[in-house]
Amino acid sequence: MAKIETTRLLLRPVSRNDVADLHDIFSNLDAMAYWSTPPHIDLAETEAWVEAMMSIDPREGEDFVVECNGRVIGKAGLYTFPEIRFILNPNSWGKGYAQEALTALVDRAFSVHQLPSVDADVDPRNEASLRLLQRLGFQVMGRAPRTWNVGGVWCDSVFLRLMSRGHQVR
Ligand SMILES: CC(C)(COP(=O)(O)OP(=O)(O)OC[C@H]1O[C@@H](n2cnc3c(N)ncnc32)[C@H](O)[C@@H]1OP(=O)(O)O)[C@@H](O)C(=O)NCCC(=O)NCCS
Q: Which of 10, 32, 161, 170 could bond 39 through an S-S bridge, CB–CB 3.0 to 4.6 Å?
């Protein structure tokens, strides 16, 4: 699996050595406020995520650990094509890192994987993600209520899409 270098970041394949850093993120209540699963309580939950990330069929998706200055600050990728998902440690928010990582992932989705579009499914309360995606050119395609049951609470979805240039409707 490829590594992607951007101005400030390295996006690389996950390894079992990343479990502790990723657990810091997946157990963080702020980072997980609008995720599709509850925050991780046990390290074993994060270990299972890491195993799942490592066993993605490259024909079906790819997911990266995001590093900045040698430190793991998050995870981003298209775990299942064409849906993009991303999460950063709150101590790395507000610096444009997510925008930098997603710009590279979207470019790769269109140029390497030749996807006609990249999609996102975001909780309508998740303003930071909606702002980020719309800044990257994603457009709202629709909304649906009660799409995710997260720890017994129903959450809604906003569906967004970015078309590749070659597939835009003229
Ligand atoms: C979604 C998430 C990654 C966004 O993080 P973020 O740091 O706000 O996103 P960006 O990289 O776009 O950074 C934008 C902010 O950095 C600031 N910034 C600073 N330097 C910047 C730079 N060089 N370039 C761009 N923005 C910069 C911007 O002004 C902006 O600040 P604002 O939000 O106060 O307007 C983060 O909130 C998160 O991890 N959330 C939890 C996980 C989640 O909900 N994921 C979505 C599930 S699909």
A: 32
Give me ligand 1 centre to Cα 133, in Å.
10
pLDDT in tens, 68-82: 999 999 999 999 999
* Ligand 1 atom closest to residue 36's alpha carbon, by position in its atom list: 47
CA–CA separation, 88 and 23 (whole Å) = 12
- Give the number of other CB atoms < 10 A from CB of residue 160: 22
d(CA 24, CA 89): 8
Q: From its phi and psi, is residue 136 left (phi > 0), alpha (psi between -120 and 50) or beta? A: alpha
- In this predicted model, what pLDDT tens digit does every residue of 43-55 receive, in sequence order? 999 999 999 999 9
Distance of CA 83 to the CA centre of its chain: 8
Domains recognised in the chain with CATH numbers: 4-167 (3.40.630.30)
Q: What is the pTM of this model?
A: 0.96
CB 72 within 8 A of CB 14: no
User: In this structure, are residues 98 and 76 in contact, taking their beta carbons and an 8 Å threshold?
Assistant: yes
Q: How far is the CA of 139 from the centre of ligand 1 (A)?
A: 18
> Cβ < 6 Å from ligand 1: which residues?
31, 34-35, 85-88, 93-99, 120, 122, 126, 128-129, 132
